[in-house]
Structure formats: C-alpha cells, structure tokens
Design brief:
Helix content: 40-55%
Oligomer: single chain
Number of domains: 2
Number of strands: 12
Low-confidence stretches: 47-55
CATH class of the largest domain: Alpha Beta
Distance between the termini: 17 Å
Radius of gyration: 22 Å
C-alpha cells in the first residue's frame, strides 16, 4: 500500500530529540516495517532560520510595538498562504504518487480540502493537540480565529477518520467541531521497547536515591516545581540527588534557581542529550518524575520510563490516568505539596518502587509500544477499506 504522510506544521523539526519527532519517525517506520511504501511531505519543508543579532533586535522591537492580535493575524495570513501553496503541491504529488492512503499529522491549519478529498477518499488526520487553542495560549488571539475554526471543522468533516492521543482530546474534537464519535480513534503514544529496556537487576535504589526528569525544559513541564519539591527532601536531610536531562528556554533560569537555593551539589543539568544516549542515562535514575502536563497530550516520557521498569510520579491529568492507575502502577500528583510528599514516600519504600515499576512495565509492554501504536492505525485503515 502507498501511504502519503503529510506534516502540516512547517515548524516541526523531526531531527530534534522531541516527543513529536519521535512520534512522527516511529509512525513512518511502523508503516514501512509493514511493507508499505511511504512518501513524506511537510508544508513549506522545515527551514531552520538563523537570525543575526541585529535581526533579533529588530524582531524584538517590533513585537513590543505591534499589538499581539495583529502579530497573530499576520502570522495566520502568512501561514495560510503557505498552506494554499502546499495544497497545490500536494495535488501534484497525489497524482504522481497515487497513494491509497493519506495520513496527515495535523497543525494549526489542516491541508485536507474538498479538492484534495476528491483525489483521495481515504484521508486520515492525526490530532495531537487542540492546535488553535494551543497557538492562542502561546502567541495570542488572531482576528482570523473563528475562520480558522471553520476551516478546521471542514477538514475534519472531509476526513475518513481522526486519530487522537487521548480520550479528553477526542471529547474536545467531538464537542468543538461536531465530529462523529464513530470516526474518532484514540491511540496513545508509545515507546521503542528495543531501545528502552529494564536493567537485568532493577535493584539500583540502594541508599542514595536519584530522582530524574527527561524532556524539554519549558514552563508547562513543571521542572521549576520539581526543584522546589526536591528541596523539601534536602531540608529533611534525605540522601538523594536530582538529574534533569534536556534543554530548553528555562534552563538558564533553573540553574540560577538551583544556585540560589543552595542545591548545586545535588542537582545535575545535562543539557541536550541525543536520543540514543537517554536509556544509558536513565539507568542511574532511581525514580522518574514528570511534574506537570497539559489536559490533552500523551507524554512519551511516561512510556519510556515504564519500559525501563522505573517507578514513576506523574501529573494527575486525564491522558496520564489512561496509562497509569494511581497507587497501582504509579503515583499521580496535582501540586508541589503532593509531589514532595510522593517523592519522600518512594524514597522510604524500596519495595513499593519495585512493585510500581514492575506493574507499569507490564502495562506499557502489553499495550503501548510504537509497533502496537502503528498496528492500531493500520488495523483501522484495513477495516475501513473493506467496508
């Protein structure tokens, strides 16, 4: 089967060590391992722009004097022009490649239009986030927001099916865009279990516990809160350390926080780490922590922690509750106080750590590898094609 994989967000860089890049690459690999021919197209192609110091200063100045709604509207206009151009390019690619299936990873705008739907009837859209609301939260509201919602609703209606990563996101799509419940398939993220493996012996707790976080250092991941909670353990005299694996906008600020709180000897920042090295680094981590997440996403790091039999503390949000059952195969927390309390609890209970790690490993191994994720997609497509 010929599958055209479309990335409708031009800002995604699949060479980066990110959850979205892992998801894209693993899905493509899964299609190919099942002997399907895959062609990949990205809107605009990904172009990494390098700005000079003077350009950065100009942009910073303009952002200060131009109202946020106007900035957001200009961005929408430029992106929509790019989408219109991409639709013409896709039309030619579809005619030349003649795919049986188009699988589109959704972005702020969706590529699927009525003209393209006439060329390929089996067009699926993978939705990983409420893209319009997410963009508005980060960049402000555009004057074209309502029109953007209208276009999104039209594209979703034209699709044969929508794959989402969580039940909460599925419910949102059904409510916001009047999507038929029958065409929404919930397919959480996964893990490459050939890459993330448990230790032969998981008895690494000993007397010196290392708490660990892996991911982008961004405000919504809650690393600041993790440091605050960790300090509680240090104040109580517990023999433990914290390793933060990753890079991001908040890294410099967090290093300063650690210094001010006199935690420099206990907290290690690795900076950016290539994907192939992460399992090796996690081997030295006793307890894995994901302090915060949003209401819709399926955090890849939870599956990676689970595949290594690590006890996990994670945020008490809907998509995480679909993976982890509180007190059975992980600990779920809602605030810094609960986070600190849970860290102290696992620090003092090695047997509980072992049990939680074993159970989460079993759940992930049985349900959430990338092979299984791709197979759910292919099974759905096969079922639709036989109707």
């Amino acid at each position: 089967m010929r599958i055209l994989y479309v990335i409708s967000n031009p800002d995604l860089d699949i060479t980066q060590n990110t959850g979205y890049a892992r998801h894209i690459l693993e899905t493509i690999k899964g299609f190919e391992l099942n002997n399907h021919k895959v062609k990949v197209y990205q809107v605009g192609g990904f172009i990494k722009t390098i700005q000079s110091s003077s350009q950065s200063k100009r942009i910073s100045f303009l952002k200060k004097i131009i109202p946020t709604p106007i900035q957001a509207t200009i961005r929408d206009i430029l992106l929509f022009k790019r989408i219109l151009k991409s639709r013409l390019e896709l039309k030619k690619i579809i005619i030349d490649f003649n795919p049986e299936i188009v699988y589109e990873r959704d972005g702020y705008f969706t590529c699927l239009s009525s003209d393209l739907a006439k060329l390929v009837s089996s067009w699926y859209i993978e939705v990983n986030a409420p893209a319009i609301e997410e963009r508005q939260a980060f960049s402000g509201r555009s004057f074209f927001r309502d029109y953007t919602h209208f276009l999104k609703k039209n594209s979703y209606g034209l699709s044969l099916g929508l794959f989402t990563v969580s039940s909460d996101l599925a419910t949102f799509l059904q409510s916001k865009y009047n999507v038929d419940k029958k065409k929404v398939i919930i397919n959480p993220n996964g893990v490459d279990d050939s890459h993330f493996k448990p230790l032969i012996s998981n008895d690494i707790l000993g007397t010196n516990y290392t708490f660990g976080f892996v991911g982008s250092i961004l405000p919504f991941h809650g690393v600041q809160e993790l440091i605050v909670a960790f300090q509680d353990l240090v104040i109580e005299g517990l023999d433990c350390s914290l390793i933060i694996i990753g890079d991001g906008d908040e890294l410099a600020q967090l290093k300063e926080t650690v210094k001010i709180r006199d935690l420099a000897e206990r907290v290690t920042f690795t900076g950016a780490v290539i994907y192939s090295k992460i399992p090796e680094m996690l081997k030295e981590v006793s307890i894995c922590v994901m302090p915060k997440s949003n209401w819709y996403g399926s955090p890849v790091k939870i599956f990676e922690y689970g595949a290594m039999k690590k006890p996990v503390i994670a945020p008490n949000v809907g998509p995480v509750r679909e993976i982890i059952t509180h007190e059975y195969d992980g600990i779920l927390v809602s605030n810094v106080t609960e986070l600190a309390s849970s860290m102290k609890r696992l620090y003092s209970d090695a047997e509980l750590c072992r049990i939680l790690g074993e159970r989460l490993y079993q759940r992930v191994s049985d349900n959430f590898t990338w092979r299984m994720n791709t197979q759910r997609i292919l099974d759905t497509i096969a079922k639709d094609l036989t109707k």
